[in-house]
Design goal:
cell membrane; mainly alpha; single chain; antiporter activity; Sodium/hydrogen exchanger family protein; membrane; Na+/H+ antiporter like fold
Amino acid sequence: MQTQAMIMTSEILVMFVILVITAMLFARISEVIKVPDVVLYLLAGIIIGPSVLNLVSIDHYPLGNQLILTFGSAFILYEGGREVKLRVLNDIKTSVSLLSTLGVVISAAVVGFAAIYIFKIPMIYGLLLGAVVASTDPATLVPVFKKIKIKERVKQTVISESAFNDAVGAILVVAILAVINSGTFSLTANLKTLGVMIFGGIAVGVAVGVLFSILISDTKYGYFHDFAPILSLVTVATSFVLAEELGGSGYMATFVTGLICGNKKVFKLWVPETDFVSQMHFRETVALLMRMSIFVLLGTHVDFVSLAKYWQQSLVFVLLLMLVARPISVLICTLPDRKVKWSSKELMFIMWVRETGVIPAALSSIIVAMKMPYSDIISSAVFMTILVTLLIQASTTKMFADKLGLLEPNEDFEREKKLKPLLG
């Protein structure tokens, strides 16, 4: 048994090294050719996957696949939760709440029912596909918004929605998988299960978030503030495992834990500055590693036979998501929020910015690893969705915001423009 365990450990380490080195190489290439890095990660996965070099595959490293996808998506959700600032959200909370809950359900339903006819698959698998792609991606959106200066309420709405709806989308997928595996559908039973998953995850997330925030604070109970970076990993693992053991959603728990940890000041908890900085750098590094690994893994899962067979249907599916499902969900979820008074230009921008990324990639990979029926169709459609939304939407975000007049003056740029004539 020990020998087998050592072999499995060695295989996981080998896979991780291959993934990270490959991702770093292609990240550099993306900087040179000015293409979103996640697109190059997908290409890297294809090259090292079964289709080309066959260095990494689900069959070779099943445990490593599952570990990276599960923990990686949980950690990214934790980081997404930390990006949400409760005070800034106060004015836009209704829109964000509706977009990240009802909006996910609407998008999943619209493209899910469309998938039934596009791919000729049973309804439950169409809805599963819809649920996988319904959420947006904070790991992609946050870097985009760091490069452009846009109206704060628009920026916070898009980022906060993406952080919240990843957890909701993950829960929706898990709930549909539970229906598929049980073979029965009971509205009462499934709503009850969904309620337990959501509220159980929230309860665990709040408890773990408060406890670990206290343990790294500068109060008399901050016994472990020197180990703040390490506790980031422990916090994510604890909240995920504890929630799952109690019947709640591990994804919701890790997201809420991040929300609590990212808003410690609201609870009058402070972390010593040195520990805060070291923890921040450590978290960013781990999140980058997980993001890179998940996208490269998704590339290794691409089945070119299926993609060649379904690429046209997948393209139609993506266009419906971008041009029909997203606008419908945004209008339904924002118009009731009379307090904010969204302008038509702001709504058009929110409709356009909905990149698909890490969590859908991880969920798709998990479904493939489970060898679910129609997983080849789901994998092809998700791959096409990520590719198209990143190539078209992520790369045109700044241009679209500029055309709509939503960009705000960049103070550094304006200062440099004024000084240039004086400097000759």
